[in-house]
Amino acid sequence: MRFDTRVVHEGQPPDPLTGAVNVPVYLTSTYVQTAPNRNRGYAYSRTGNPTRAALEAALAGLESGAAGFAFSSGMGAITTLLDDLPAGSRVLAGEDLYGGTFRLLEHRRKMGTLRPVFEDFRDLGRVRAALASEPTALVLAESPTNPLLQLCDLAAIARVAHRHGARVAVDNTFATPVLQRPIELGADYVVHSLTKYLGGHSDLVGGAIVVRDPAAAERVGWLQNALGAVPGPLDCYLVLRGLKTLGIRMARHSENGRAVAEFLARSPKVARVHYPGLPGHPQYALARRQMSAPGGMLSCELKGGVPAARRLLRRLRIFLLAESLGGVESLVDHPATMTHASIPRAERQRRGVSDGLLRFSCGIEDPRDLIEDLRGALKGI
Known about the structure:
Layout: H1 3-9, H2 50-62, E1 67-71, H3 74-83, E2 89-94, H4 99-111, E3 114-119, H5 124-133, E4 138-142, H6 154-163, E5 167-171, H7 176-179, E6 189-193, E7 207-211, H8 214-227, H9 233-243, H10 246-266, E8 270-274, H11 284-290, E9 297-302, H12 305-315, E10 320-321, E11 331-333, H13 345-350, E12 357-361, H14 367-379
Helix pairs in contact: 2-9, 5-6, 10-14, 12-14
């Protein structure tokens, strides 16, 4: 089956008991056993739930993995992934990444349980040098990154990491398996915030890990049950519902992202636009090779800096000021005080995340209305 057909059907056969087209929501905490430790495949819903199992099968299929695991949040997924590493392991992470991931890695550093090192993944030479300098357990990448929309060559990084005995995990939240499938490019793990594009309607919180190797899947499955950061069945059902429209939504998100990025790039009041679908993006060629479309996320810096950004935010009407992304509605975020506030200001600025940076998640509205909203707001700054 082609991908847009698979997002509708993967892991979601009609219910064998009733023929229901949608996977039922199994709202139960426990299951009757036929004898002590003998059951019909389920004993307790932290360990397994049929609605969650359907979602996990769908995610594994869409990301070309051996197994998928759902969690109560994206950070729950990353926490579980890091807990699979031996104490004191070195983790090589990209410099531009979600503030919550940075916060967790720094917490693990302070606790002495992990040794995170941050590097610019756009420069393969620097990645090679960092991996050659000492043993590394995990390479943790985002591509595109949050919030600067930087890309890294996932296939090349996977090859280098594997030569040095490191595993590779890719946060694929911005791209989704519609636009990019990291396991097919060599990654060992794919991480998602299900809250974002896969759910797609801003009505749930969840996370996921998809694993390439069956042996690694056994370890992640054990940790999922032991740590217990699992989603409820209703949230799993809502993600399954979101997956059915993921293909057509991502096409519209990408169409709107490109239209908004091109408009902002033409504005005399905008200093810089970060969007991999613009020919001026430093990794435009890589985006065309590695992704099927550039997606609906972008960020920009206004020439008036922080005061101009604040005035723009007050004047927007369709773009809603809120954290999160990937929903059908368009959102705007101020990373320095919202999603990336946990990164110290000096470190943010060193990485290129200025106080005046704005991040846009373009929804599925008519792109003409999004541009008119921005045009009107820009007039006031």
